[in-house]
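Schema walkthrough. Field components (list of strings):
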Amino acid sequence: MTERSRYATPKLGRLREVINIKTIYKVLIAAVIAVVAGGAIGFFTVNPIAKAVTSASNATSGPWSVNYAYGSAAANPYVKAWVAETGLFAVTISTYFDAYTDDNGQPITGGCDYVIQGPAPTARYWNITVYNQDGFLIQNDQNRWSFSSTDIKFEPDGSFKIYLSRTAKQGNWLPTGNAKTLNVYFRLHNAGPDYLSANTLKSAGLPHITKEGCQQ
Amino acid sequence: MKKWIPWIGWTLLAVIVVAVIVNLVVALSIPTVIMGVTLNQKFNYPSNQWIFEPPISDNSTDVIRPAPDDLYSILVYDVSQHPLRVTAVTSPNWAISGIAINTDNFFNITDLQAKTNPVEIVLISKGQTYKDTTGKAVVIESPSDKGILMISAVTPNQAALPGLVEQQKKSTAELVK
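Field assembly_structure (string):
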């Protein structure tokens, strides 16, 4: 037996041993598990990850949060995915503040009355809108969904108060109809510099959202 | 039993790798898919024509969180073959914005930034060239062949609405062939 053949035979034997039918089955089963389980995990975790990544990159002040990357080409893919789902056609000339809770961190619900109050923002134009749990305007007989810098009634000191309630209120009343949970949205066009940076946001004086009481 | 331990390890690793790849691919695709569905199925507008949207109301469900004070005009553009020239009349708190098919907001011109009224824009695709001989138009390259142009104008009060509607209807769009 030559030197070459003495080593070739055990190698070939080992190859046969490794690539046997059992191994092929094992590889196929592993591949199917990887594609099915990995695909499902990958697909169904996109939304929670996109929400978490966007929340982590939000700047917050009290109940308000803002993401300065909304609409921007520089936003990471998960923020872009979240924006596409929750705020399609977002543009970078406006600044959007979002609140789902009151000042105490409790969800804003349609069964309770709230007052939103604060100083008039430094912006060329601003508007506060209330949406229902689906992100749409709330049906009401008054067709009143928002107050803006052009139509709100200011307090004598220049500040403003907006009332969220199912029942009529004196002053700036936003009817909440049959909405279960509420989302308050604060849009500013050409906002002052304090509103445009996470570092200065706390000094910008964003409005307070205070619960006044709940209906029985 | 011990023979299976490496197989379980390799399978788990493969699951993680596939999950990460699928997750990233889906995240990257979501903006384009949602934009495509909105433009092709919800809006279904003809390309390169301004569509003057009715004022926002509680019946407006095409887009989540619509701005009730804004009057919108939408143009679904396709500049794959030719540049597109658009004109639009400005008003206070007015803006024209370009949004690519992947939802990137690639330009905005507000009434404060507009150098002419009406504003004149020539939208070109990547690789196209256009020389504006009038000196009035702003030439803007779109990162995608398709997307939308959106005019938004704040309606300060209901009395101002008819005038703003008429003004937006003066917007024009034509392919430059």
